[in-house]
Each structure stands twice: as C-alpha cells, then as structure tokens.
C-alpha cells in the first residue's frame, strides 16, 4: 500500500520532545520528503506496527497525524511544482 | 513491501536514530527506512562499522558487497535464524545418494533448458531464423533423461549452452562479437555483461536461500565445494534464461547498453557508473514484475518465484512432493 503521512505536532507541553520521537519513528518506516511529510510503500502489517508505535507518543488532544493510503503508487499522480526531488528511490 | 536498496555513492553507511543513514562524501545525509529494507547492495565505496552490522543482523537484513570491478566480494548475513537439522540431513542425503541426486540435477537441467528453449522460440517468432538451433536443443533435451552421471549431464548442459550462445549474435541487434563465453576475466563487452548480471542473480538467489531452511553450500547439480554457495548456482541455472538473459537482450536491443557503457582502457572489464545504475535498476524492475501464478492463483513477483522454487526443493527433499523445476508457462 502506498502511503503518505503528514503530522502536526503542537509546540505546547513538551512539544519538541514529542516531535522528535514521532519523527524518528516515521523515519524507520518511510522516506522523509518534506518537513512533516513522509511517503513510501508499506504493507498492512507495517502500517499497523507504525500506528502502534506512534500512538504511544501522540497526544490525542494536541497532535494530529494523517495518513493517506493508495492501493498502489501508480494510482497516485505526483507532480513537482518547483524543485524536483527523487527522494524515494532505492538507488542511492 | 520490502525492497532491495542499491548504494552506488561513496560515503558512510551507519546506524542513526534506529534507522539507516547514508552520509555522502559532501556531508549530505540521507535516511533509509529500515523497515522497508529487504537487502542492501553496496556497489560504491562505502564504510560500515560493527554497530551497523549488529543493527542489520537484528533486522535480518543481508548486505552484499561488490568491488571496484563490480565483482561480487561477499555478503554479511545475520546469524542463521532459520535452521532445521531435518532439512539439512535430508539435503545431504539427497546429495550423497546417486539416484536421488541425479533426479534433482535432471529436474534442474530440464527446467533450465526448457527456459532456454523458450527464449529462442520467442525470438524465432520475432523473425529471427533460429529453427535449426531449436531442433538441436530439443534433441539434446531428450538425451537428458538418459544421462547416467553428473558429468554426462553437465556435458549435455554445456552443449545446450553452446548452441544457445551461438544464437546470441542473431538475437542481439548490436555488433557484439560474441563467439565464446569467457570468464576469469571476461574478454569483451558481452562476456563482462553476462558475468556481472549473472553474479547479481546468484546473490539474489542466495538471499532467498537465507530466507529458507536450506543450506546454500549443499548442491545437487554443481559439485558442492568449499568457498562457494553452489546451491545458488543450481537454482540460478533455472532462472538465468528468464531473468538474466532476457534482461541482456533488452538492454542491448534497445541500445541502453553499448560499447560506450564500458571502460575501454580496462578491456571492457568495468562498467561506467551510469550504466551500472541503469542495469541494476532494470534488474530490480524485472524482479518486481508480477505474473499470475497458476497453482497459487495470485500474483507473484519473479523474485518470489525464486523463493517458491526453494520451497519446492524443500518439499522434495523431505519427501512431501517431487520437485518439478520452474518452467516458463506463459
């Protein structure tokens, strides 16, 4: 499943700490493409694992995390307006 | 969906924040999501440390190294987690018992030669006259069943390959000057290309073997010897026509690779970095290609076909179901 994850971590009540943890967890599963945006191909079970890890840190009253799912990358029209960046490649 | 990551750039690969980080020479950093990595291929000059290896082992990731001439150097594989004494004993028994070993070796050659035949047939239909080669291969295939020992079988296999390689000058639209398969070291462009792509296929098979209980050093067709993983040679035999050879035909016929992709001063031994990237990318795409599996009734990728082949082998050696080599069915 092709996934785009975006989050918004509030700065209040130890916000930076939460932000750091969330960032590190997302980094393990997805490619970091922009400040609070990640994308990549994950399986159902990996999404479940990621969700479990994130839930421990997200504060339900302050932070939000949205995950957009698409069945396959080809159902996603990706357009670059401005600088083009092929960040998700597996050839480094 | 995990995938292979290929690293061409020079730099340092390390563990950072519980994931992988590649630090380029200019100090730029790039994170690699560890949960998505299936295996790593290092084709550039990369430094790694034990901390990283420990981390990879924990995540069950193989890392394969290639040297400056794209020659396979070796792999780091995590401590074997899938071990089964029973499978190992059965595997060794099948190697030791002449009859049992011949049965497996024949099945491998049957499948491999059929796939070779299919490749030629495909190009024959596309207006290249290869009828006589096809007939000769068919004849040789009939004699596989009458082989009494491994040497004889290898002889037949060698003859089939020779006829097969003879067709390459016809199949490939470029001037390739390919008379004979030469290794150690390859002597021209096409031989280098074959060597490089075959070595990639061997490593792919090896990674898949590590995902099963089989022992990569105990083989049936090739003689199990020290210092090499001969089982991966056996299995690769079946898949080379489908994966490696077809890839070579495409690369050359579409003129994606030509003389200019090689370092001429190095006797065509070394691929230029751009060409290297292109080939591995094409191979990666190829292995991700899916087909509908007849028995499983679902889509499987070429890479997974390799694993299925190994499972079939396990079933055979523990006596559950006789092994039938993979044959192109579409």
Automatic annotation (TrEMBL), chain B:
Identify the species of origin: Pelotomaculum schinkii
Q: Which GO terms describe its biological process?
A: defense response to virus; maintenance of CRISPR repeat elements
Top EC class per UniProt? hydrolase
* Record-stated family: Belongs to the CRISPR-associated endonuclease Cas1 family.
Keyword Iron carried by entry: no
Q: Which HAMAP family match?
A: Cas1
UniProt keyword list: Antiviral defense, DNA-binding, Endonuclease, Hydrolase, Magnesium, Manganese, Metal-binding, Nuclease
Which domain of life, per UniProt?
Bacteria
Query: What is its biological role?
Result: CRISPR (clustered regularly interspaced short palindromic repeat), is an adaptive immune system that provides protection against mobile genetic elements (viruses, transposable elements and conjugative plasmids). CRISPR clusters contain spacers, sequences complementary to antecedent mobile elements, and target invading nucleic acids. CRISPR clusters are transcribed and processed into CRISPR RNA (crRNA). Acts as a dsDNA endonuclease. Involved in the integration of spacer DNA into the CRISPR cassette.
Asked whether the UniProt record includes Magnesium among its keywords, one would answer yes
Q: Which cofactor(s) does the record list?
A: Mg(2+); Mn(2+)
Q: Give the protein name, as stated in the record.
A: CRISPR-associated endonuclease Cas1
Q: Name one GO molecular function term.
A: DNA endonuclease activity
Name the residues that bind Mn(2+).
Answer: 157, 222, 237
Q: How does it assemble?
A: Homodimer, forms a heterotetramer with a Cas2 homodimer.
Give the signal peptide as a residue range, or say none if absent: none
Which Enzyme Commission number(s) are on file for it? 3.1.-.-
Pfam families reported for this sequence: Cas_Cas1
């Amino acid at each position: 499943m092709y996934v785009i994850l975006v989050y918004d971590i509030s700065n209040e009540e130890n916000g930076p700490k939460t932000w750091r943890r969330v960032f590190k967890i997302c980094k393990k599963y997805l490619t970091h493409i922009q400040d609070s945006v990640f994308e990549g191909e994950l399986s159902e079970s990996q999404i479940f694992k990621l969700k479990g890890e994130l839930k421990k840190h997200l504060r339900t009253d302050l932070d939000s995390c949205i995950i957009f799912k698409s069945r396959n990358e080809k159902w996603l029209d990706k357009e670059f307006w401005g600088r083009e960046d092929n960040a998700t490649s597996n050839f480094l | 969906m995990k995938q292979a990551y290929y690293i061409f750039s020079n730099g340092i690969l390390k563990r950072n924040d519980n994931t992988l980080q590649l630090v380029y020479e200019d100090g730029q950093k790039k994170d690699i999501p560890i949960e998505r990595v299936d295996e790593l291929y290092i084709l550039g000059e990369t430094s790694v440390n034990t901390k990283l290896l420990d981390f990879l082992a924990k995540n069950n990731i193989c890392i394969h190294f290639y040297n400056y001439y794209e020659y396979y150097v070796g792999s780091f594989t995590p401590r074997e987690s899938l071990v089964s004494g029973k499978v190992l004993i059965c595997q060794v028994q099948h190697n030791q018992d002449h009859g049992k070993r011949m049965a497996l070796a024949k099945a491998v050659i049957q499948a491999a030669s059929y796939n070779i035949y299919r490749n030629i047939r495909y190009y024959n239909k596309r207006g290249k006259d290869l009828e006589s080669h096809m007939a000769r291969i068919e004849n040789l295939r009939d004699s596989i069943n009458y082989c009494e020992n491994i040497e004889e079988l290898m002889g037949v296999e060698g003859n089939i390959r020779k006829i097969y390689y003879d067709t390459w000058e016809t199949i490939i639209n470029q001037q390739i000057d390919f008379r004979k398969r030469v290794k150690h070291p390859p002597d021209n462009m096409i031989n280098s290309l074959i060597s490089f792509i075959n070595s990639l296929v061997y490593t792919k098979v090896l990674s898949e073997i590590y995902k099963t209980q089989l022992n990569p050093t105990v083989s049936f067709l090739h003689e199990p010897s020290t210092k090499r993983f001969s089982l991966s040679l056996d299995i690769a035999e079946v898949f080379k026509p489908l994966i490696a050879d077809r890839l070579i035909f495409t690369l050359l016929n579409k003129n994606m690779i030509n003389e200019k992709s090689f370092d001429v001063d190095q006797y065509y031994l070394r691929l230029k970095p751009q060409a290297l990237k292109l080939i591995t990318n094409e191979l990666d795409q190829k292995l991700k290609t899916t087909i509908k599996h007849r028995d499983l009734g679902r889509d499987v990728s070429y890479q997974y076909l390799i694993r299925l082949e190994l499972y079939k082998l396990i079933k055979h050696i523990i006596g559950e179901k006789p092994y039938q080599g993979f044959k192109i069915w579409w």
